[in-house]
Amino acid sequence: MTTPPTLNAAPQTPITPLQVTYATLALAGLIGTWGFNLEYLRTPGADALGFVAGGFANPAASSLTVDLVTAATAFLFWSNVEARRLRLRSWWWVPVVTLAIAFAVAFPLFLLQRDRALQGASAQR
Q1: Is residue 1 part of a domain?
Q2: How buried is residue 81: exposed, middle or buried, by Cβ count under 10 Å (0-12/13-18/19+)?
């Protein structure tokens, strides 16, 4: 009995400009979010509750927080379905990176993984 093939980029597939863009956005997301996270952690009395409360400090911050949480939740549902549809090898890292590092890192990295898989599938045809 054979298992169905997985859609993962073959090692010899070239890196495209779009994939470089996704990787660059993930790096920018990491630097941007964690720059502010580390700045917050250096403040006296910084804790997780205060961090969340800061996201609702005023109507503008609340709007951005609700927008981010809604988009990240939709992304987690979609990326899980998409990973299954494309038979990507692993999806577990997506919610971990989204929650522990940043949505701004997880989203472009998933797009990179997805694009590489699609590229590998089209190269196999």
Answers
A1: no
A2: exposed
pLDDT in tens, 55-104: 999 999 999 999 999 999 999 999 999 999 999 989 999 999 999 999 99
- Joined together, the tokens standing for residue 99 give 């929650």
User: How far apart, in whole angstroms, are the C-alpha atoms of residue 29 and residue 34?
Assistant: 8
Domain hosting residue 92, numbered range: 17-124
CA distance 6 to 14: 19
Report how many domains make up the chain: 1
Joined tokens for residue 93: 């890292």
- Tell me which amino acid residue 114 is: R
Q: Which residue has the tokens 């609702």?
A: 56
Count the residues in the chain: 125
Query: Is there a domain that residue 55 lies in?
Result: yes
Please state, in angstroms and rounded to a whole number, the distance separating the CA atoms of residues 64 and 56.
9
